[in-house]
Amino acid sequence: xxxGEEDPQALSIQExxxxxxxxxxxxxxxxxxxxxxxxxxxxxxLILIRSNERxxxxxxxxxxxxxxxxxxxxxxxxxxxxxTASYFCAxxxxxAGNMLTFGGGTRLMVKP
Amino acid sequence: xxxxxxxxxxxxxxKRQSVAFWCNPISGHAxxxxxxxxxxxxxxxxxxxxxxxxxxxxxxPKDRFSAERLKGVDSTLKIQPAKLEDSAVYLCASSLPxxxxxxxxxxxxxxxxxx
Lengths: 112, 115
Hints:
The complex is a heterodimer. By secondary structure, chain A is an all-beta fold.
């Protein structure tokens, strides 16, 4: 079973708009990561937020984490057509091994 | 720096046939992972190696799937015999040892189609 679930499953926006994707998970975590996957490619790590952090920024990306609600959000500001991809959250539960459990992903389409 | 290499990129087989996938992780990465990604879903961890030892294989269907990492570098994932539901992309990833904060680096994947 998947630990994280993304919402929405699909999102279509115009270039320049902001895109927000949400992730919910079930068990206590050490950290939460967001990955991007372009069609037919492997996953690329975007950002990691630790369980004791509430917000993190990286370029046009902003991630928030609310451990009380077991949820996270990824905001992409000023989106570009090149941001079109699937976005996955991944969590590692409080156990050894760095094992990640991925959600089902949000498919983002940015129209030029 | 070279990334995670996987081969083949695509494979089409008949059900009940056997297939093997190969992965070469980033140099120096002691931890190696195999994931199965079914179309429209997120990746699911099949097995994790630390050097040449198995850390977790709880989601590996051991009646048909096997994996090895001899010498703690390259790894091979085998399916024998394949079923229709094994059609998926098989992703290999690697990371430095150092739980719990290391990011994983993914290869391009092998797309398997079982007919």
